[in-house]
Amino acid sequence: MLFVCTANLCRSPLAEHLARSTSAELGLALQADSAGTDAIAGEPIHPLAAETLTRRGIAVAPTWSSRLLDRSAIQTADLILVAEASHRSRVAQLEPSAVARTFLLLQFAELVRAASNDNVRSLPDLCTAANAARSRIAPVRHYSADIVDPIGGRRAAFDACAATIHAAIATSLRPLASGHRQLASD
User: Fold this and answer.
1) For the chain, which residues score pLDDT lower than 70?
2) Can you give the residue ranges of the Phosphotyrosine protein phosphatase I domain (predicted)?
3) Which end is more exposed in the chain, N or C (fewer Cβ atoms within 10 Å of the end residue's Cβ)?
């Protein structure tokens, strides 16, 4: 999974770390990374984002640093979840073949909720189910599906951002955990 925002300092690193934590809680072994469409490579995570994760019991490695979104990151990701519509556009510009596996995070959670997840065993299966669900739900306006950037805000803005991201990730990964349990019991 690849999470994308603008500077790779707040939203996408929050999502990266929250996805790893949620994946582990659900008994899944998923890789999560992040990048920014306009990131300056090598910058540390925003201090309030790091503090938010720490309060949730999630450690940020001292070696973690921001990275600029590139074709390689896009090509190796099974699923790309972005914070804003402009980020999805940038992914499509860099790698047009990635459109079917690139979603706004909040929209993806809604699609997964509406999807038939009976045969979901992997991230590509989850993308297929989400794409199939597009015709069953009303379109989401871009501005309502964007995750608000907490940069420049206080601690409460970062907490709210993390809560929004965590809820969307938990909703999105739950079908994989169900499929994983079914496979284990077969």
Assistant:
1) 138-143, 179-186
2) 2-175
3) C
Residue 174: HSE in the Cβ half-sphere, 13 Å Cα cutoff: 17
Residue 8 φ/ψ, nearest 5 degrees: 60, 40
What is the reported pTM?
Answer: 0.92
> Is 64 in a helix, a strand, or coil?
coil
| 3 vs 8: CA distance, rounded Å | 9
Kindly report the CATH class assigned to 2-185: alpha beta
Instruction: Give the integer Cα–Cα distance in Å for 45 and 100.
Output: 29
pLDDT of residue 179: 56
Q: What is the pLDDT of residue 139?
A: 64
Residue 63 DSSP one-character state = T
**Pair of tokens at residue 90:** 């940038």
The residues pairing with 103 across neighbouring beta strands, listed in sequence order, are 81
Find tokens 């603008």 and name the residue.
6
pLDDT at 117: 76
CB 37 within 8 A of CB 69: yes
- Say if CB 65 and CB 33 are below 8 A apart: no
d(CA 157, CA 161): 6
Cα dist. 44→4, 7, 67, 138, 172 in Å?
A: 16, 11, 10, 39, 27
